[in-house]
Amino acid sequence: TDTLTFLGLESSCDDTAAAIVRLTDGQPEILSSVVAGQTDLHAAFGGVVPEIAARAHAEKLDLCVEEALEEAGLGLDALDGIAVTAGPGLIGGVMSGVMCAKGLAAGAGLPLVGVNHLAGHALTPRLTDGLAFPYLMLLVSGGHCQFLIAKGPEDFSRLGGTIDDAPGEAFDKAAKLMALPQPGGPSVEAEARKGDPKAFAFPRPLLDRPGCDMSFSGLKTALLRARDQVVAEHGGLPRQIRADLCAGFQQAIADVLVEKSRRALAEYLKLAPANPGFAVAGGVAANQAIRAGLETVSREMGADFVAPPLKLCTDNAAMIAWAGIERFRSGAQDGMDLTARPRWPL
Ligand code: KG4
Ligand code: ZN
């Protein structure tokens, strides 16, 4: 049998992660996947503090690697390569990961493969569902929102994306405005379930314009105005009205994502793919209303809809190990001159 076993490292935002993925005769398997979050470290600051994140990554990476190897029941000698997120992201964290990976690769005499974090997300549907190129991808998280056509392990074309906030960021800000807990996505979604999405009229930004670009910052402003008006009228935010506001806000985001997905699918289908596929990744893909809308439009347009399990949609190192395997198989490899890149468009 033909096998390839990679350790992956991820440290570009606020999750330190290590994972081992093995490809056996074309069949990938996740042997271990360790994710150590830092939410508690940043909670008091209302956002990720880059310096604190970098220090925590430097402290936790070794431990995550140890745990990933142990969980997989493997030693470094069983590996065929080390993959690491080399960007984009918070530079201190990315540097911690790249240095750790270089040390391991040099020490164990293994190939080193730098991975673009976004490529990690974008290649995940091949790890989980064996999706064939070319497929359409919607990356939708706290930091990203873009449509990509994945044509090969290093060949992506961008159809459009947000011109301001990412939807996850919008959900997080909405939660703050509604005095709901962070992360905002899940708490706004729970609140929205109790509300009427039609009670308040929210805009559907950029739907009147052609193309796949999106905008979400205006929705946040609309929510702020609506809230202030309610508070002025009622002397506070009544429970039912808060639920209605959340429902309207969420529906507006879902409608924009669904309509833009329809356009992206139409563009993608012009390539006449043999097995059309539409995959979604990122934390916002956890939202049931959004997910259901994307699934429906995908079915209507005749593409298979793929939503990887949530823990593989959010930041993790299995996707990095896998992207490393894909790059390595296409002949790519990096040297000790691999650098950490804060910005790195696909
Ligand atoms: O992919 P992710 O874990 O991290 C990055 O941003 O890279 O995504 C986190 C984002 C947060 O903004 C969070 O509020 C949002 O995903 N999110 C959701 C839901 N669960 C998480 N947004 C809407 N609905 C949800 N159920
Ligand atoms: Zn990510």
Name of the CATH architecture of the largest domain: 2-Layer Sandwich
Main CATH class of the largest domain:
Alpha Beta
Rg for CA atoms: 21 Å
Instruction: Report the order of strands and helices.
Output: EEEHHEHEHEEEHHHHEHEHH
Could you give the distance between the termini? 33 Å
Identify the quaternary structure here: single chain
Unique bound compounds:
5'-O-[(R)-(carboxyoxy)(hydroxy)phosphoryl]adenosine, zinc ion
Outline the structure in words.
- There is one protein chain.
- With 346 residues, the chain is of the alpha/beta class.
- It has helices at 39-42, 50-72, 91-108, 117-129, 167-177, 184-192, 217-234, 239-269, 288-301, 310-313, 318-329, and strands at residues 3-10, 15-24, 27-37, 81-87, 112-116, 135-140, 145-152, 155-161, 277-281, 304-306.
- The strands form two sheets. It has a five-stranded mixed β-sheet with strand order 3-2-1-4-5, sandwiched between helices. The chain has a five-stranded mixed β-sheet with strand order 8-7-6-9-10, sandwiched between helices.
- The two termini are 33 Å apart.
- Bound molecules: 5'-O-[(R)-(carboxyoxy)(hydroxy)phosphoryl]adenosine and zinc ion.
Features:
single chain; 346 residues; alpha/beta; Nucleotidyltransferase, domain 5; 5-stranded mixed beta sheet; 45% helix; 20% strand; binds 5'-O-[(R)-(carboxyoxy)(hydroxy)phosphoryl]adenosine; binds zinc ion
Concise account of the structure shown:
The chain has helices at residues 39-42, 50-72, 91-108, 117-129, 167-177, 184-192, 217-234, 239-269, 288-301, 310-313, 318-329; strands spanning 3-10, 15-24, 27-37, 81-87, 112-116, 135-140, 145-152, 155-161, 277-281, 304-306.
